[in-house]
Known about the structure:
Helix content: 10-25%
CATH class of the largest domain: Alpha Beta
CATH topology of the largest domain: 2,3-Dihydroxybiphenyl 1,2-Dioxygenase, domain 1
Distance between the termini: 23 Å
Strand order of the largest sheet: 1-4-3-2
Oligomer: single chain
Number of strands: 8
Radius of gyration: 17 Å
Strand content: 25-35%
Shape: globular
Order of helices and strands: EHEEEEHHEEE
Largest sheet: 4 strands, mixed
CATH architecture of the largest domain: Roll
CATH superfamily of the largest domain: 2,3-Dihydroxybiphenyl 1,2-Dioxygenase, domain 1
Amino acid sequence: MSETLEKTKTEPTLKLKFYSHATLECGDIKRTRAFFDEFLGFETVQMSPASFWARMGGDQVIVVVKTAEASGEMNFLNHNGLDVSTDAEVDAAYEMVQRDAEKWGLRKITKPTVVHGTYCFYFWDLDGNAWEILSNPR
């Protein structure tokens, strides 16, 4: 194994339990929650008039918070990854994203290609959050 790939275990400074959530901004809580529910397929729970939790396939949640003034478009490298099992499912998702782009305010939709060793594409939602749909076979 290459020295750059070897993992060395050191005691962490902080004794944390687990990574529980990430946070995204939105401008219209009702519309964004519908996008998460109806288009992306997340399970969502309205936690307050200005926030909801979104979860898919695990314990980690995304906390989506309505802000008066969004901080702008998410940087490409800070995207949110959504996995499917096959390249064909990536292609099918790409077609659906293109088909529903106007309805959900989706933009900057890239064509599927191999990036960092997996087949994927990217798009930005109505709130400027970046998403990647990628094949991640078992």
